[in-house]
Write the structure tokens for this entry.
Amino acid sequence: MFGYVLKRIVLMIPTMIGISFIAFFIIQLPPGDYLTSVIASMSDSGQDMHPDEVRRIRALYGLDEPMIVQYFKWITGILLRGDFGYSFEWGRPVSELIWDRMGATLAVSMASLLFVWIVSLPIGVYSAVRRHSIGDHVFTLFGFLGLAIPNFILALTLMYVGYKYMGQSVGGLYSPEFVGAPASLAKFWDLLKHLWIPVVVIGTSGTASLIRILRANLTDELSKPYVITARAKGLPEHQVIMRYPLRIALNPFVSAIGWVLPQLISGVTITAIVLNLPTAGPLLLRALVAQDMYLAGSFILLMGILTLIGMLISDLLLAALDPRIRFT
Amino acid sequence: MQQTANIHEHTAADDLALTVRNLSVDYHLRSHILHAVRDVSFDLVKGRTLALVGESGSGKSVTARALLRIIDAPAQVTSGEITLFGPDAPLRVDEMGENSREVRAIRGKRIGLIFQEPMSSLSPVRTIGAQIVESLRLHRKMTVAEAKAETVNLLRQVEIAQPEQMADRYTFEFSGGMRQRAMIAMALACDPEVLIADEPTTALDVTTQAEIMDLIARLQHQRGMAMMLITHDLGLVAEMADDVAVMRFGRIVEQGPTDAIFHDPQTAYTRRLIDATMRLETGHNRPPPPMDGPPLLSAKEVSKYFGEATWRGKKKWGITAVDGVSLDLWPGENLGIVGESGSGKTTLGKMLLRIVEPSTGKVIWRPGAGNGDAAERDVTAMPKEALKGYRRAVRLVFQDPFASLNPRMTVKQVVGDPLIVAGLASGSALEDRVAELLDMVGLPRDAMERYPHAFSGGQRQRIGIARALALDPEIIIADEATSALDVSIRAQILDLLLDLQKRLNLSFVFIAHDISVVRYFCDRVAVMHRGKIVETGTAEQIITDPQHDYTQSLISAVPNPDPRNKRMASRIRFAS
């Protein structure tokens, strides 16, 4: 088992190198650089910048060097000094900007993942065991609605409902009076009051698809001979289902961490813009539009790494759950 | 039922373990109601074995499950009495609720159940021990430690070596025979009065089958259990059962003591069933083909090693699946290859076709051997194009008639596919050829437009044979072609193959683990054991006068369908 974990971690290294390179390459793809967009916006407002001045700044920031050299400067900075570069747009080091935002993203994503699990597990089991019952059809209908409704519509609707009928302040993660206030129980309660909207919005489609997957898998497993063996032992029905078919049908649930996590993180972007959440999404979007390359690159890199870690965790959990994976 | 009353006149009433009277089970399907079991009555007596015999779909398994009330949702017990006798007052199982506390107290505790496929009947994600412990904790109210100790004890009783370690292993670490032993241990954990064994050895080799049946018989004797043995193998019935009930279309058509059923069957159906089994016990009286000319196909010292290398290219482990096998197939001959699972017979068949590349050795093909032309072609060195021609001449028929036909292709597409791939026919010519092929295997022309699921197992196997015949082959390699079929259909398919052989001048390589089928079909037999051929001879000689120790043990483990002449009890054991 230890060897397996070690192997997986070692194998992550080349993947990470690949991700970092691709992240950097992608943000270099659009023509021009940060200065081009600065000049464009300055000329829009009637100002002009002297070409010598442009060249001087470009050399100062190292923007005139070949891509590969820039990449090495950036990546060695991260590895050796934890220095993610400098955000042109904000005029501050990237690392100062990024951690708060990543933390909020992670919090929202984790809360959404928990929501997805807690809601879809019982419903999935119910739907599989009472297949074609009225309850199953109702959940199926809601599941498909959840899959079909775009996130931003759902976000707007919930904001309206929250504001109009529940009288709470919506948007952001805190009410205005708590922003910047020191941590307290009241502040945490306020967070929870705000968090439910993004969690529901972001989690709905994931919940719907997980219910479908669990229902299909458990249905398959329910007709396996070992279930009849368990019944023939005289076990009560709920124990039969919990101990036998569910154990195997849970596999996609655990591997879901791997694919739900990136989906949640990217799903956050649109929702976060609508709901005005202080997560990574809106910042990443602005950084990309402004060609603020180090900021955008660092975000993409960190999200890639988060996904990799999610995959690793899900694979380890899977190995713990299913001996057939552990032994091969 | 008159018959039932007659059978057990000699048994005292307090020996009864379980009685079933007029049991009926219906399946409520979308379009109609299927009567799976109709008016079935029988008695299970302490210390005796009742065999429930019948072909697939006759309602045997449903009957067994109805006794425990674990039939699946569309099925329902519509009438009948199931009475379980015991130290206390008799219990009416049929009156209990589907998942009530009373019926759960009977399941596993008073009636134990052994299923056919030990691989899929045990959960792969829990240890063998945990699955047995659960049963003990449930019914015998043991603590975890007591239950664990008892589990080890049970595993020892079913003769699993090193029971302490094996209790913590998973099913996929067990061999088929060991899994079935674990299953038996589980069924016997709570000392049931009635044991139901539903095809307990169908998935196992003959030698393993003999061991498992030995074990079951001994444990039954020790504990005085009543047993219901469900099987389609009449040989096993003759060896094991005291009484027999023959089922067909959900009804018991005949029941009585084993000897009476075998030697004085009253109904035509029983007679037909026994005849089909007995017919396979006799060899055919075909003159063997001439063996003086050059052989059509020869394997010369072929071996296959499987192994996995570490990332540095070193061998981590290796298996020799086939070890220096040489054999010849003469024109018009039927060569049988028999052996247990894992003996390398399927790998050998695949190497003859070069689907699996031999590690060493050669396969030589002499396309003109039938006319005395001995020009050799080395199959192992053939380039891709030439191999296509070879594979036109040598075709394969598979074991599983359900898995080997694409469910999304019509019969015409399935049978015609080789012709299209070879570019030999299209349009109406293709249709005519497919119709001709279907006619050859005894299927109507209008079968062409239907999909495989519309056919029974035997009919599907006919479709598979028609596909193999499409390109006018010289040799057909049949890998367990009849082992998935019921015994009466098995005989039909073998007769079809023999008939086709006469008409089309075919040669067969017939891979099987069923000795009686080989005797019926083959001229010569090669016996494989652990990748090597231990003995080759004429079919008659191998079966009546085996020379090698292993062959002797193999032949003696085959159940004999004659209750007056039991073979398994006095079988020879091969130690290696």
